[in-house]
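#lab-general

N.A. 3:47 PM
ok so I finally got the sequence cleaned up, no stray characters, all 295 residues accounted for. can someone with queue access submit it? mine expired

B.Y. 3:52 PM
send it over

N.A. 3:53 PM
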Amino acid sequence: MTLVAGVILYLGFNFLKGSDVFSHTNTFYIKYSKVDGLAPSNPVLINGFQVGKVKTLTLNQQDNNSILVSIEVNDDILVGDGTYAEIAKDLLGSMSIVLKMSKNTKLYEDGATINGGFQMSLTDMLEGKAYPVIDHLDTTLVHVSNMLDADMRSKLYGTLANLEAITSVLKTTMQSGQSKLDGTFTNLNTLTANLVETEKKLTPVIAKFSALADSLNDMELKQTVANANLLLVELNKSATKISKGEGTLGALVNDKAAYDNLNKTLTDLDALLLNLNKNPNHFFAPFGKKEKKVK
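B.Y. 4:20 PM
back already:
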């Protein structure tokens, strides 16, 4: 029971440390001048895939306080002279070792030392970009300061003083005109209230005028319809009389003999007019004039 308890304790302790007792790994060493917060159990990555972990970190004071880091890597990973180990930090501050794998001419065995360095973080890149900008900005400020000599500074101060004086005058003017503006707004409010009251009084009058106009229109329409009805009645009576043969027009429409006589009369009148046009002397000469015979 003691032996079993000891084995379980050993396996549990290594499990809590992140060690896998039953996996086959190789141990490699890397020497760094600093580790920037790297700690045991941090992952060892290749292209973002974990292939191992950091095992131990040892400070070597005899070698200019360098730090020797041991890592455990899966034994199926080919580590050689083309392998480069970089300490990397992500945006959240998590540390890891990233293995850069290139073509190996020689493979390393368990316990070998590989080359290492540091991967530039986002903060380092921003600092590298920011420092030149700051230097240029500092230089620009120096040039601007040199351009502003004593005379220019005095003119600039004078301009600022004039601007302050103008602002003060505007403030005084606004304060003096505030009472007038208040009175104007008061009059506008009074005028608006009077207009509202006038509108209330005019609304019934306009309604009465509208009703009167509607009544007049209604009366005119009724009178027109009545006149039209009377005219239709009279026309109906006349048509009835004509249809029955009453009156002159009815006799002409219904009596065929009268129609024939009227037609004969119109024919004779047309012949007379033709003869008058052809022989006017026969009708208008003294005592008349006989028509010459045409050979």
